[in-house]
Amino acid sequence: MALHWLLPRIKGIPVLMYHRVWPGLHDGLTVTPEQLREHFTYLRDNGFRPLHLRDFMATAKGARPALASDLLLTFDDGYRNNLTHLYPLLQAFRWPATIFVITGTLDGSYPQAADELDRKMAPEEYRTLDPELVQLALHGHHHEDFKRLSAQQAAAVMRRSMEVFSVSGLPWHPVLAWPYGARPKDAAALAAMKKALATTGVEAAFRIGNKPERTPSRDLYEIKRIDVRGEDDVARLAIKLKKGKLKPF
Question: What is the value of pTM for the model shown?
Answer without folding.
Answer: 0.95
